[in-house]
Amino acid sequence: MKSQVVKRSVVIGGRKTSISIEDLFWRSLKEIAKDKSQTLSQLVGSIKSGRSENANLSSAIRVYILSDLRARIAAAVEAGVGPVAGQAWHAQHRATP
Known about the structure:
Helix content is 61%, strand content 16%. It is α+β, with helices and mostly antiparallel strands and 97 residues long. A two-stranded antiparallel sheet has the order 1-2. The longest helix is centred in the last third of the chain and has 23 residues, at 57-79. It is globular, with a radius of gyration of 17 Å.
């Protein structure tokens, strides 16, 4: 599977910022912003302000998306919903020899 990096622009604090990111991450970022009732610019701005000084913004966005996904999976497992939760329950409750 080929993943094409696309350069996109976002306005943060009145300044245009370029981000080179794959389409899958871009779509995920937009979904997260919508779920958090934020604009894309607001979300990217908070990611930008929360990253370490020498971290690339595109990389920081990818890490943020992965962290968000992991938190959602953990919440689903904790709530006992979804296929991952079922697998976790099965693993904890299977008979051991």
